Amino acid sequence: MQNILARHPGDLTIDWAQRVVNKHYSHIIVSNVDIVSVDIGTTTRIRIKVEHNEPAILPGQWFVKLPSMAWQAKLITALPRLLHTEVRFYNEVARSVSVTVPHFLAAQSQLGRGATLVLTDLTEFGAIPGNPGDALTFPQAALVVEQLANFHARFWNKEHLDHTHGWLAGPVRRLEDFLGTAMAVPLMKRGLHRAGELVPSSLHAQAVHYARHRRQAMRFLAEAPRTLVHHDCHPGNLFWNQSRPGLLDWQLVRFGEGISDIAYFLATALNPETRRLHEESLIAIYAQCLENNGVTGIDVEILLKRYRAHLVYPFEAMIVTLAVGDMMNLESNHELIRRTAAAVEDLEAFAAIPI
Q1: How far is it, in rounded angstroms, from Cα 59 to Cα 69?
Q2: Helices in 91-242 by DSSP H: which ranges?
Q3: d(C-alpha 170, C-alpha 199), whole Å
Q4: Structural domains in the chain?
Q5: In this structure, what DSSP letter does residue 223 have?
Q6: Is 153 within 8 Å of 294 (Cβ atoms)?
Q7: Sequence-ordered list of residues with C-beta below 8 angstroms from that of 212, at least 6 positions apart, any chain
Q8: What is the pLDDT of residues 134-159, one digit of tens each?
Q9: What is the pLDDT of residues 59-105, one digit of tens each?
């Protein structure tokens, strides 16, 4: 098997690119590799230009993900093996999902040696990547909700996937949940301190109480029909191709309740004013799309209650992101904290969880 593992942008040489190409085409010869940009967050994201002799067959703009070179982010992401999870998603699951994902070139992971993911750069086909601080309109949000509903419906109550793709719910996911619970209180306190007035003072005690009882809260949020969920649906993990949305960054993919993706998306991607005006309509669209895809027993009132409870997670995620640091552009992180705090306050989300 061609080894494509890389640890640093400097490892993305002509020889490395040739090994990627050889996985698909033995007759294509790579002549040059130029690094276009390097962005360091939860992973190290590198855009490269690859020159070869068959541009009509193979894309020349690539997007490469390596483990983060920021030590804080690496500390948080290394043990739960988040990039390894994304590699397995593209190798084993991506071709069967109904949501639009980037074109996949190659991926490899190895315990102790890291992980490398190679995708076609979105700009190769005229797609536009989102930014974490983007604020979507109602029509845009409706398109994303429809995509998520189609995606969730495809895997709704497919319990056999626990056996065929056990890594989605196995020891790594349990380790991630354990770490999240063990670090919940100090990270929540640190994030709230750093957030300052972005989070209303009335939420501080409730947020710390939730962090202290996070394990119990997670059990409650898991008590529902399960499907495959993205689990990180903020605007920076979207891309747009001819006004159609797609989803990036599948490091946190897992089994969970579908409405959790909707809560995460609406809390982060909409300005509070837009969310307040349209969230019930968007949840109704989600329910209708599920039914159109053959999912039975959907109760919109129950969905609304579960949506309210699941709002605590995007709030926690953005607070923890700020507490750790170097995981997201600071201005965008602040804006997403403002949005998620407003959602939690508006719907009294902490009170929706029996802890």
Answers
A1: 27
A2: 138-154, 161-164, 171-182, 184-195, 204-212, 214-221
A3: 34
A4: 9-125 (3.30.200), 128-352 (3.90.1200)
A5: -
A6: yes
A7: 184, 185
A8: 999 999 999 999 999 999 999 998 76
A9: 999 999 999 888 777 766 665 678 889 999 999 999 989 899 999 99
